[in-house]
Amino acid sequence: MPDFPPVPLTLEGSCVLHQFFRFDWKSWRSFADGERKDGAPSERKKVAADAMDALRSLERAAPDAPVRSAIYSQLGHKADLILVHFRESFEALNQVELDLAQTALSDFLIPTHSYVSVVELGLYESSRKTYEAASAKGLEPHSADWNAEIANSLARGADAMKPRLFPCGPEAKYLCF
């Protein structure tokens, strides 16, 4: 029996950024809220409108597209808001951070925690089957043909598992993890 790699194959999908913020209510309350004499919106309303526009543009790539970013109210004492962003790369997540930092709302958000992850599916059972199928075809483990066979198998699996690898943000009132 050939010596198969001991580590299972994996499929990688979305890069995910979770951001946790405390809202600076004291600064928000001291921020001008009165109606302006010229009829223009108050500073608070401008900040809120700007934030809504920014969050709406991050939420979906198009009106009928899946949710890519979502905002939740956090229960408990550690933060007030959670933003969760699903993107195709770490570079895209970095751009999300930069876009949010450019909003006036960011002046009122105090980061308390964040983490970055990758949606990953471990192919524990199917790794062995994939290795055995390649070996049954007479392919030498770790050869160029073997590696191509494994890559083709992973590509088929990634296509079949696309909804799990590239999930959309939950369209729910509450988020639990």
Give a description of the structure.
- This protein is an alpha+beta fold and 177 residues long.
- The chain has a domain at 13-121: Alpha-Beta Plaits, CATH 3.30.70.1030.
- Helix content is 39%, strand content 24%.
- It has a four-stranded antiparallel beta sheet with strand order 2-3-1-4.
- The longest helix has 17 residues, at 43-59.
- It is elongated and about 80 Å long.
- It starts with 8 loop residues before the first strand and ends in a 12-residue tail after the last helix.
- The model has no long low-confidence stretch (mean pLDDT 89).
Helix-strand blueprint:
Elements: E1 9-23, H1 25-30, H2 43-59, E2 69-73, E3 81-87, H3 90-101, E4 109-123, H4 124-136, H5 144-160, H6 162-165
Helix content, binned percent? 25-40%
Major sheet, described briefly? 4 strands, antiparallel
Total beta-strand segments? 4
For this structure, the CATH topology of the domain at 13-121 is Alpha-Beta Plaits
> In CATH, what is the homologous superfamily of the domain at 13-121?
Apc35880, domain 1
Radius of gyration: 23 Å
How far do the termini sit from each other?
A: 42 Å
Mean pLDDT: 89
Residue share in β-strands: 15-25%
